[in-house]
Amino acid sequence: MRTSSNPAFKSLPKGGHANFNYGQPPGGSFGAGGQAPTAPKQAGRPLTIDDVVTKTATTLAITIGTAAATYFVAGPQAIALALPAALVGFVLALVNIFKKKVSPALVIAYSAVEGVFLGGISYMFASMVNPGIIMQALAGTMGVFAAMLVVYKTGAIRVTPKLTKWIIGAAAGAFTLMLINLVAGFFVEGGLGIRDSDGGPLAIGFSLLCIGIAAFVFLLDFDEADRAIKNGVDAQYSWYIAFSLMVTLIWLYLEILRLLSYLQND
After folding, report:
1. Measured between alpha carbons, how far is 120 from 193 in angstroms, rounded to an integer?
2. Tell me, what's the pLDDT at 101?
3. Per-residue DSSP letters for 101-147?
4. Residues in CB range of 111: below 8 A, 6 or more apart
5. Do residues 178 and 223 make contact, with C-beta atoms less than 8 angstroms apart?
6. In the chain, what percentage of residues exceed pLDDT 70?
7. What is the pLDDT of residues 54-100, one digit of tens each?
8. What is the DSSP letter of 32?
9. b/e sequence 37-61, b meaning 16+ C-beta within 10 Å
10. Is the terminal CB of the chain with fewer CB neighbours within 10 Å at N or C?
11. pLDDT under 50 in the chain at which residues?
12. Quick one: angle between helices 104-128 and 78-98, nearest 10?
């Protein structure tokens, strides 16, 4: 049985409905998740692609809306909101992953809180570099998402068990390096240098690596959603799929934003 990189898919039902296992980037554990909820027996209609698109669009709109409100209304104070929002978002992500039943309210809450976090982070980067970097990062994120969707739909890259293991291993390695770098930063200025604010070659290379991994995670997310639809998973699980896609989108946006800041750093 193939396992996804995204822990949210751990909450999809197993057995007769679909065989799912789900990375909370950033900060999550790839390939690790909570117990699968008990699948409701004939509780509703089966999942469709429209359900996935609608719920994903809803969560994305909430995140963008709260991010824009935080950015434009809070102003400089938005930066101070980033850290607490990140912590709350992390807790909500864990609850969504480990909760046995689907909770649209929790997914919506996660999307809203992450919007506050992104609004604060975006304001910080806009102040450090230039305001135009935000639209560039958004365009880059949507471009990568669209490109990987085309790659998946055309079958240019097939999601095989071997590829899945490679992506999960690469993601786990990347986040392990991030943690080591964070700890090393307490003892050595700049840590390992993979998150150097000056944008050295190592930092740029690591950001490119993370962007590449995040792009391939989309393939796993698309494949899990496709298999959920084919296996007749209950429609309410579209909220879990939307949540997993949002996790990957947020990670990708942050990595592209960071890379752009390196490239535009004087």
Report:
1. 24
2. 82
3. S--HHHHHHHHHHHHHHHHHHHHHHHHHS-THHHHHHHHHHHHHHHH
4. 59, 60, 62, 63, 66, 246
5. no
6. 83
7. 999 999 999 999 999 999 998 888 999 999 999 999 999 999 888 87
8. -
9. bebeeeeeeebeeebbeebbebbbe
10. C
11. 1-42
12. 150
Three-class SS state of 70: helix
- Structure token pair of residue 252: 């990708």
Helices 49-69 + 104-128 axis angle, to 10: 40
Cα–Cα distance for residue pair 2/14, rounded to 1 Å = 12
The secondary element (H helix, E strand) that includes residue 197 is: none
Q: Which amino acid is at 204?
A: I
In the chain, where are the structural domains located? Answer: 7-263
Residue type, 138: L
Q: How much is the pLDDT for 75?
A: 83
Span 10-21, pLDDT tens digits: 444 443 333 333
Q: CA angle, corner 146, sides to 143 and 152, nearest 5? A: 140
Q: Which amino acid is at 168?
A: I
Nearest to 236 by CA among 44, 105, 56: 44
Return the structure tokens found at 255: 């990595």
The amino acid at residue 215 is A
Six token digits for residue 88:
């709350």
pTM of the model: 0.82
Smallest CA-to-CA distance from 182 within 194, 170, 171 is with 194
Residue 112: which residues within 8 A CB-CB, separation 6 or more?
62, 63, 66
pLDDT (0 to 100) of residue 266: 53
Instruction: With beta carbons less than 8 A apart as the criterion, state whether 113 and 84 touch.
Output: no
